[in-house]
Amino acid sequence: CEVALGEFLKEIKKNPSSVKFAEMANILVIHCQAADDLIQLTAMCWMREFIQLAGRVMLPYSSGILTAVLPCLSYDDRKKNIKEVANVCNQSLMKLVIPEDDEMDETKQSMTLLAEPTSEESLSKPEAASSGESGLDVTALNQPLSFPCSSERIPVTLNLDGIVQVLDCHLHDTSIGMMTRIAVLKWLYHLYIKTPRKMFRHADSLFPILLRTLSDESDEVILKDLEVLAEIASSPAGQTEGHGPSDGSDARPSPVELHVPGRAGQLSSSGTKGLECSPSTPTMNSYFYKFMINLLKRFSSERKLLETRGAFIIRQLCLLLNAENIFHSMADILLREEDLKFASTMVHTLNTILLTSSELFQLRNQLKDLKTPESRNLFCCLYRSWCHNPVTTVSLCFLTQNYKHAYDLIQKLYPLGV
């Protein structure tokens, strides 16, 4: 059977233009999830060839393919061959997503040559695969081969809803391996780069799980997660009003509240008053402020995360986003923080990063020279929040060369034993 399938695949590769790739895609998705290693490897090899030969014709089956491929990326060395082929399938499928997919209107979905498979077809494992039957359905694969020439095809339109649902389910699954989580985050980042307008319809439903992923044990997972969050917070596509969860998306309830500001300069949140955006900092989209508020909420509710990864997360964000914008917005938020102990701890963390981190070198130089209105405005913003912690207030004065004021503060604080 294995030899026969190999010969059949060779014939397909010799004459791919006459093959009904789409009609056989679901069969491969089913067997790529088989319990038998040989069946799974064979089906995965076929899937790899189909993606490379058929190209975007396979896009409507992306959700099913990802359901089968992503778990394989975390296989150990005992299933090394399956893992390697699955990785090629994943990379090849990702390359099929192009910027033009973001420009296609949803009304063109009904005009596509190939329909998206149903969730039962693409996401579930049929009995034939799970019961470990002896091989692929050669009869089903060996159908009359015919395919219209490329000039007669109607372009395939990418349907993101199914893909995002699969990626979201994998992020919520705490049992999946590290490499699978990294692959999911790479997919999300890739989709936000290639199709930002459509992806922002899913931003509200994805935001809570992306924030929770910051507590992952793996630094590499956190780095990829921060890249996705930074892209959401800085993409111009996020400035458009009216983005919400798409119809039919599986939006899970979350303790994290997400509030989109009514206008760019003001932010409303429970326990947080209006926050003014610094005129000296680049304008971010509305998700940036939402991100800053909810990141601080997460640090407040999960102090271990702040202690072990807080500095790491903030330093990486300063590389991915604008450091001045991050410090300015966090200082404004902390100024209105009701938990004074947390505010003091958070200010101390930010101050340590500001004084010692290589990522903040430019910002330190900006604060050392208070000759511009922008630098003075930043100093005033930081100073108000830094007052939550007396020591950080004095150190900020030293950094900005306000030595006389630092001396006056020490004189007043000394009787208090600070």
Task: Write a concise keyword list for the protein shown above.
mainly alpha, Leucine-rich Repeat Variant, 418 residues, single chain
Descriptive notes:
- One of its GO terms (cellular component) is endosome membrane.
- It comes from Piaya cayana.
- Residues 303-413 form the Vacuolar protein 14 C-terminal Fig4-binding domain.
- Residues 114-134, 234-279 are annotated as: Disordered.
- The protein is mainly alpha-helical and 418 residues long.
- The protein is built from 21 helices and no strands.
- It folds into 3 domains: 1-96; 108-113 and 155-237, Leucine-rich Repeat Variant (Alpha Horseshoe), CATH 1.25.10; 269-418.
- It has helices at 2-14, 21-31, 37-54, 62-69, 80-95, 119-123, 127-130, 138-141, 160-172, 178-194, 196-199, 203-212, 219-234, 286-301, 303-320, 323-335, 340-356, 361-368, 373-386, 390-399, 403-413.
- The radius of gyration is 26 Å and the shape is elongated.
- It starts with a helix and ends in a 5-residue tail after the last helix.
- The relative contact order is 0.07.
- The model is unreliable at 109-154 and 241-282 (pLDDT under 50).
